[in-house]
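#struct-help
A.M.: can someone run this one for me? Single chain, 257 residues.
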Amino acid sequence: MDILPNLATIDFDLFLILFGVAVLAGGIDAIAGGGGLLTIPALLWAGLSPLQALATNKLQASFGSFTATWNYSRQGLIKPSEHRAAIILSFLGAASGAWTVQKIDPSFLAQLIPLLLIAFALYFMFSPQLGEHERRQRISKNTFAATAGFSIGFYDGFFGPGTGTFFVIAFVTLLGYSLPKATAGTKLLNFTSNIASLILFAFSGHLLWLLGLTMGIGQIIGSFIGSKLAIRHGSQLIRPLLVIVSLLVSLRLLLQT
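D.P.: on it. Structure tokens below:
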């Protein structure tokens, strides 16, 4: 497989711009999700086709979600061994979604997702105690894996925008996690879905490896800084960013429909 497909028109200055976008996106993504709101439009602006942008975005995002997961795990906010079922089913869901998106047009989701994200943003905005402390767990972790893990994983592989918000709301409302702990769990499953999608896209011929790896380095830097800030400031930082990112993703989707 050619590691440099269609890169002849991307010059060094553009690589630097996309690297900077990846740093910023990695920081935002580690705290509240929504980094794709920056990276996918930037990749399309650079001249990539929609499938090239999706595939390359999964590669660079994998570096960021891994870095954030490692940082949160090191601080004791998430233990991957406790979420084996969710990891497996999120992986299967994302792989199914990434395969499906190469067969059908996902544009119909652009009409539904903004409404859900706006509802979630209002929910966080007007529920100031939500996620401040851990609450009663509503379902078992295996049920969580089979429902939220698989379905949100599928959505991430198939479409993507707002995945972090969906995972956070699932961790908070279904497993009773605090916002910092929910954010850590979100990055663990986000990394899983990124890797699953990446494997499917790697064989599609749409992945620009060198560009994705370059942006991946930027993601590592941004995600390390963002996860550090989230650990230090907790829900006081995570909540407003979740609201802002959810509304921005909704606005973008509404404007492009």
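A.M.: thanks! Residues 1-5 have pLDDT under 50 and may be disordered.
D.P.: also worth noting: Residues 52 and 93 are 21 Å apart (CA to CA).
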